[in-house]
Specification:
Distance between the termini: 44 Å
Radius of gyration: 18 Å
Strand content: under 5%
Number of strands: 2
Shape: globular
Number of helices: 12
Length: about 210
């Protein structure tokens, strides 16, 4: 029998990492990668423990590479378990997050708050499963990935989609956004497809792991 574990609380996640000697920056970085996902957190702790047992100081690039390679089956299983609508919503969150990391604004997604309001039930489910977190301020409501590993996975999926893939799912988008909004999203997809070299690297995405400024 298979039963998916709920995301760990802050206290539970800290307990998992409590036995490992690490700086507060490294602990925060691992939490950024895995958040409360039990499988991701366990794998990050295993890699760190292996390095420390071998009396090695883990290098950022190699640590992140090993982590991503080892967690691909977990991330793929999570992605595959989602409905097409949930995947599309995660693409929107990934595009919004990516836009904020670029040196300047290359695409305009329009008012996503209005779009998200049409699918609060599905987004609430993603929050409940620990994939997204909802942050509300007096001026805006935004969704963020709780785990930067999952954000990286969704971004890689975004880069490997095709125009045919997007067109085939056009009806899904048009169920909760206008045609004008869809054209903006389509343009954002196209920008990502043609400018993969400008997408932040894995090390930049996980920069907090080793306390790098």
């Amino acid at each position: 029998m298979f039963r998916q574990l709920k995301p760990l609380s802050n206290e539970e996640a800290n307990t998992v990492l409590a036995g490992l000697p690490m700086t507060p920056e490294l602990r925060d970085g691992i939490r950024q990668i895995a958040d409360g996902n039990p499988a991701l957190l366990q794998h990050a702790g295993y890699l760190l423990f292996s390095a420390l047992r071998a009396e090695k100081i883990p290098d950022a690039s190699s640590f992140i590479k090993e982590f991503c390679e080892g967690t691909m089956p977990i991330l793929n299983a999570t992605w595959s378990s989602l409905t097409a609508l949930e995947q599309m919503l995660l693409f929107l969150v990934a595009l919004e997050g990516l836009s904020g990391r670029l040196e300047r604004k290359f695409y305009d997604l329009g008012n996503l708050e209005t779009v998200y309001s049409q699918r609060e039930l599905e987004l609430g489910s993603l929050v409940g499963r620990g994939i997204l977190q909802l942050v509300t301020t007096p001026t805006e409501t935004r969704y963020y990935f709780t785990s930067s590993a999952m954000e990286w996975w969704v971004t890689t999926q975004l880069q490997t989609t095709t125009d045919e893939y997007l067109q085939a799912r056009q009806k899904i988008f048009l169920n909760f956004m206008s045609r004008q909004q869809f054209e903006k999203v389509k343009a954002a997809f196209a920008w990502v497809w043609h400018h993969k070299d400008q997408i932040p690297s894995l090390v930049n995405l996980f920069v907090k792991v080793f306390g790098t400024p």
